[in-house]
C-alpha cells in the first residue's frame, strides 16, 4: 500500500481506528476523518504509535452536516492529488429520533447520505487515481430490513434498531448501484459486515448508553474485512458485492434489487442537492 492514500471516516474510535492502524502498518497514507478535534488528535497519536507510521493525517468534519461534507471534500481535493481508497465507516445509532442541521433524521444523514455525498464529491479524483476503491461498512442487520419511502425520515415511527437496519440496507444498495455506474472506470465498490466487538455503537444498538469495552486485538479482528477490501489484489471482478469475514456473502433479494437501488440513488440525489 506504499504511496496509496486511504480515507477512513469515523477513525477516532472502534473499528475505524483499527482499520486506520492496519492500513498505516501496510504503508498507506491514512487520512482520518473525525468530528472531535480532541478525540481525533488522541486517536491519531495512537495510530502512529501502533503502526510506526507518521503518514497519518487528521481532518475534521461533522458528517451529519452536508456543508461540512462539502468542505471536507474540497479540503481532500486540495491536499491530496490522488485518492485511492475511501472507507465510509462512520455511523451513529441515537436511541431517540433526532435531526441534523439539514433537518434530516440523524441515522439517515450520517449512515447513508454522508457516504453517498462524500463519495460522489470525490468520484472524479478517485477515477483519476484508478485503480481505486470505495468501501462502505454495512452490517448483517440489513437482512430483513425494508425502506419505507413514504416515511424515509422515520417521523411516524422511530425505533433505533429498525432505522439502523434500514440505513445499513441503504449502504448495500448504494454500493451495488455505485458499482454499476462505475463499470469500466477503474473504481470498484464493496460493502461489508464487520465483526461486532463491544463498542459504543454496539451498546447503542442494544438500547443502552455505553462506552467502548473491546480490546484493541478484538477491534483489529473486526476491522479485517475492511482492511482486506482496501488491500487485496485481484478483487475488481467482485465490485458491488457484499462481504463478511473477507468473503463474498449471498445477499437478499431486496439488497440485490436494481430498481430499488436506482430509486434510492435518485432520492439521495434530491436529499443532498447533488
Q: Can you tell me about this structure?
A:
- The chain is an alpha/beta fold and 274 residues long.
- It has a single domain (5-272), classed as NAD(P)-binding Rossmann-like Domain (Rossmann fold, 3-Layer(aba) Sandwich).
- 45% of the residues lie in helices and 14% in strands.
- The chain is built from nine helices and eight strands.
- The protein has helices at 14-25, 37-51, 66-79, 106-128, 160-181, 200-205, 216-222, 224-231, 258-272, and strands spanning 5-9, 29-34, 56-60, 85-88, 132-137, 187-193, 242-244, 247-248.
- It has an eight-stranded mixed beta sheet with strand order 3-2-1-4-5-6-7-8, with helices on both faces.
- β2, α2 (37-51) and β3 form a beta-alpha-beta unit.
- α3 (66-79) packs parallel to α4 and α5 (160-181) packs across α9 (258-272).
- The radius of gyration is 17 Å and the shape is globular.
- The model has no long low-confidence stretch (mean pLDDT 94).
- Uncertain runs are none
Structural class comes to: alpha/beta
Please state roughly what percent of the residues sit in beta strands, choosing from under 5%, 5-15%, 15-25%, 25-35%, 35-45% or over 45%.
5-15%
How many beta-strand runs?
A: 8
Return the string of H and E elements.
EHEHEHEHEHEHHHEEH
Number of helices: 9
Mean pLDDT: 94
Largest sheet: 8 strands, mixed
Total domain modules: 1
| CATH-derived architecture | 3-Layer(aba) Sandwich
Q: Percent helix among the residues?
A: 40-55%
CATH topology: Rossmann fold
Top-tier CATH class:
Alpha Beta
Order of strands, main sheet, comes to 3-2-1-4-5-6-7-8
What value does the Rg take, in angstroms?
17 Å
* The CATH homologous superfamily: NAD(P)-binding Rossmann-like Domain
**What general form does the structure show?**
globular
Q: What gap, in angstroms, lies between the N and C termini?
A: 32 Å
Amino acid at each position: 500500500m506504499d504511496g496509496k492514500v486511504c480515507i477512513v471516516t469515523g477513525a477516532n474510535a472502534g473499528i475505524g481506528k483499527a482499520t486506520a492502524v492496519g492500513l498505516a502498518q501496510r504503508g498507506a497514507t491514512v487520512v482520518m476523518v473525525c468530528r472531535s478535534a480532541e478525540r481525533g488528535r488522541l486517536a491519531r497519536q495512537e495510530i502512529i504509535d501502533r503502526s510506526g507510521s507518521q503518514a497519518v493525517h487528521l481532518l475534521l468534519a461533522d458528517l451529519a452536516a452536508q456543508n461540512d461534507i462539502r468542505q471536507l471534500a474540497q479540503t481532500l481535493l486540495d491536499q491530496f492529488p490522488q485518492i485511492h481508497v475511501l472507507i465510509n465507516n462512520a455511523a451513529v445509532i441515537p436511541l431517540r429520533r433526532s435531526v441534523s442541521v439539514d433537518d434530516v433524521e440523524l441515522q439517515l444523514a450520517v449512515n447513508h447520505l454522508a457516504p453517498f455525498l462524500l463519495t460522489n464529491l470525490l468520484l472524479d479524483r478517485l477515477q483519476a487515481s484508478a485503480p481505486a476503491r470505495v468501501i462502505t461498512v454495512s452490517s448483517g442487520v440489513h437482512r430483513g430490513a425494508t425502506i419505507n419511502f413514504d416515511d424515509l425520515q422515520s417521523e411516524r415511527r422511530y425505533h433505533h434498531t429498525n432505522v439502523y437496519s434500514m440505513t445499513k440496507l441503504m449502504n448495500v444498495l448504494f454500493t451495488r448501484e455505485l458499482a454499476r455506474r462505475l463499470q469500466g472506470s477503474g473504481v470498484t465498490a464493496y460493502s461489508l459486515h464487520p465483526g461486532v466487538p463491544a463498542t459504543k455503537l454496539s451498546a447503542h444498538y442494544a438500547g443502552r448508553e455505553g462506552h467502548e469495552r473491546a480490546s484493541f486485538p478484538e477491534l483489529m479482528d473486526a476491522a479485517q474485512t475492511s482492511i482486506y477490501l482496501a488491500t487485496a489484489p485481484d478483487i475488481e471482478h467482485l465490485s458491488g458485492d457484499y462481504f463478511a469475514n473477507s468473503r463474498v456473502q449471498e445477499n437478499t433479494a431486496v439488497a440485490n434489487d436494481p430498481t430499488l437501488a436506482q430509486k434510492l440513488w435518485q432520492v439521495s440525489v434530491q436529499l443532498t442537492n447533488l
